[in-house]
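Incident log, structure service

09:12 report received: a user says their structure output differs between two submissions of the same chain.
09:20 pulled the input from the user's history:
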Amino acid sequence: MPDTNPSAAAATTLPLANLTVLDLTLARAGPTCVRHLADWGANVIRVEPPGSGGEEISGDRHGFDFQNLHRNKRAIMLDLKSPDGHALFMKLVAKADVIVENMRANVKHRLKIAWEDVHAVNPRLVYGSISGFGQDGPYAARAGVDQIAQGLGGLMSITGEPGRGPMRVGIPIDDLVSGSLLAFGIMTALYERERTGVGRWVHTSLLETQVFMLDFQAARWLMAGEVAGQAGNDHPTGIPTGVFPTSDGHINIAASGPRLFTRFAETIGKPEWLQIPEWQTGKGRSDHRKEINAAIAEITKTKPSEYWIELFETAGIPCGPINTIDKVFADPQVKHLGLATPMQHPMLGTKMVVASALNMTGVPKAVRSPTPDPGEHTDAILRSLGLGEAEIADLRAKGAVK
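09:34 re-ran on a clean worker, output below:
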């Protein structure tokens, strides 16, 4: 598909510059997936219904959340419910490489843009989907959001302090990881397409992602029959690992395992701890977690965080501060890694957004283009399909595009 994107020249050397992606996503999980593809050079066309303005769960279009999610894209407003709008979408499908959507299953079937509909038009297309609970099964029709999946998938039962009730994680972790997993799945299908010439439908769900993220806690049940509970700031199995008070705040210390615990006891000035029989094994330290943590806290609270971090780092004991978000972005290592990156917006000016966490030798990570306004690139995209000005005006008059 010819690309009239003004930032296209800057993207031509990026790894995904040869891919065209149709973005039908809403909320956060789907946009997170597409953001990975857009950041690495894909020609992403965000398809939005006329009149939507793009405001969703991620807030006002010019607000921090929406702007952070949708950079490096173009936008077209297209009414998929109208015959003309649907026909235009299928023209885009014929030349696209990837579609990403996170609608309820019945919606994409009702709009006739489901996998079987688009695969018939473009067999090379890779179709990526995120749902709440899976594309089929007893929960397939349910609406799914991050916190619901955190609860159903067990995460809230192991998060927080014992006896305080279930606790959600402080970020939409299920949305973010499911989007990242789908991006990986799409790239896997594209890699296979190089060999077969045929695309696949790749899909995951918030529930599948959440169970996957339980990881060792899930294996703990599946293999050992142990149901994990809440452990607060303590690591559930590696003791001592947790949050400890200092004279000016708190720090994290991770000193589990026989070698680290030995080094830790000697560094903190308590070699006699190594002679306590109950503290000499991992199980013993786990059984005496409260006692050990209290003993450590009595010492760490006597000096400031910086003192302990320097001491433990010198001794090779993992430790670190507990930063508020403003302090995160003031941290010298975070600055060095460039995790806040500028985006030039015609209305908002220069704004900082969160950079990709991936690094690739010789490939820049700068934001090429800001989050687009609704329908900002409609005319340019329609021209790339071969439509003339009269045809575009007629489609606007019919309400098929905006």
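09:41 both user submissions now match this output. Likely a transient worker issue. Closing.
09:42 reviewer note: Residues 1-6 have pLDDT under 50 and may be disordered. The first helix runs from residue 8 to 11.
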